[in-house]
Design a protein that fits this description.
- The chain is built from nine helices and eight strands.
- The protein has 225 residues and is an alpha/beta fold.
- It has an eight-stranded mixed sheet with strand order 3-2-1-4-5-6-7-8, with helices on both faces.
- Strand 2 (31-35), helix 2 and strand 3 form a beta-alpha-beta unit.
- Helix 1 (16-27) runs parallel beside helix 6 (128-134).
- It starts with 7 loop residues before the first strand and ends in a 5-residue tail after the last helix.
Length: 225
């Protein structure tokens, strides 16, 4: 395994996504400093996570340029945490929002911290908890300079071909929005199709309709035979 201990970053929010990202990074030899309102799992601590109780000690444990990933629920919590980090981070440090924030908010947050010298990057993260733990897809938006700093870390944590710098501020979360729209649109269409076939099977006793409904049920259980 390559020596990835040169890469150190912080993760705020050690839930299913943030915790999975941290665990994956630790398994690859990266060093991770964490912060959460609840104690980290035994699995994370045994893997090498160092958990902090404040943004101050988290920042002190990182080397400039500091990289801090946020895996928090979208909304005002991101703004509040950005305010706290602005008080302890320094010019050139990077805050990367890996949650499902609205892309317009990411543009606003980039503009908010830019005068202070902090760098803001939006990181759309796809793959769910399994992807976070085993390899995700990252859609990144932000200025070229800070993106170049976080890029090696994200490429180590991504599945093959699962990383893209989509463009300027907000584009990472915008691409993730489009991705979600396509994904959930397909799920909705599949769900409606299954519902129609099930209703058709119940109302019609012809063999063909029963065969179609049964085929759909076999798909749901992982068989296409």
């Amino acid at each position: 395994m390559s020596d990835n201990s040169q890469y150190t970053f912080g993760v705020i929010g050690l839930g299913k996504m943030g915790g999975g990202i941290a665990r994956h990074a630790l398994s690859k030899g990266l060093r991770v400093q964490g912060l959460d309102k609840t104690p980290a799992s035994d699995d994370l601590r045994q893997a090498g996570l160092v958990q902090h109780k404040s943004v101050t000690t988290l920042a002190q444990a990182l080397r400039p340029p500091r990289i801090v990933f946020l895996y928090l629920p979208a909304g005002t919590l991101i703004d509040d945490m950005l305010g706290q980090l602005s008080g302890v981070l320094e010019k050139g440090d990077i805050v990367a929002d890996g949650g499902n924030s609205y892309w317009g908010d990411s543009i606003r947050r980039h503009a908010r911290v830019e005068p202070t010298g902090l760098r803001f990057v939006d990181v759309g993260t796809s793959g769910g908890p399994g992807g976070a733990l085993n390899g995700a897809c990252f859609m990144v938006g932000g200025d070229r300079e800070p993106v170049a700093v976080v890029e090696p870390i994200l490429k180590l944590l991504a599945v093959p071909g699962g990383y893209i710098h989509a463009g300027g501020p907000g584009t990472g979360h915008f691409v993730k929005l489009v991705h979600n729209g396509i994904e959930f649109g397909m799920l909705q269409a599949i769900g409606e199709g299954v519902d129609l076939l099930e209703r058709y099977r119940k109302r019609c006793r012809r063999p063909k309709s029963s065969r179609a409904g049964g085929m759909v049920l076999s798909f749901a259980h992982g068989s296409s035979n």
